[in-house]
Amino acid sequence: MKKRTSAARLARQLGIPKGRGLEAVVKARLIAAIFQEVERRGFTHAELAVRSGLPRSAVTGILSGSLQEVTIDRVLRLLEAAGLEADIRVRRAA
After folding, report:
1. At 46, phi and psi to the nearest 5?
2. What is the CATH number of domain 7-81?
3. Using one digit for the tens of pLDDT, what is the confidence trace for 18-53?
4. In angstroms, how far apart are the furthest CA atoms of the chain?
């Protein structure tokens, strides 16, 4: 069973603000879902690039795990291109 890292824990470990930790965790979870769907459906990076309107090199970089300069909007474009949707839950901080 995979252990999920919380945004707060990641932020502490990396010495970054909690918001940046949350952004990294959200991106990683979305990219993991995209990767699984791409594998399941047999999409090539080139096909996903055409469907998303992103350069193939960007698609390859994102799906290989590089989070440098990866924006949420690009990840969401890939999510949609892979035929997925995301739901976001917001709650009051404890």
Report:
1. -65, -45
2. 1.10.260.40
3. 777 888 888 888 999 999 999 999 999 999 999 999
4. 44
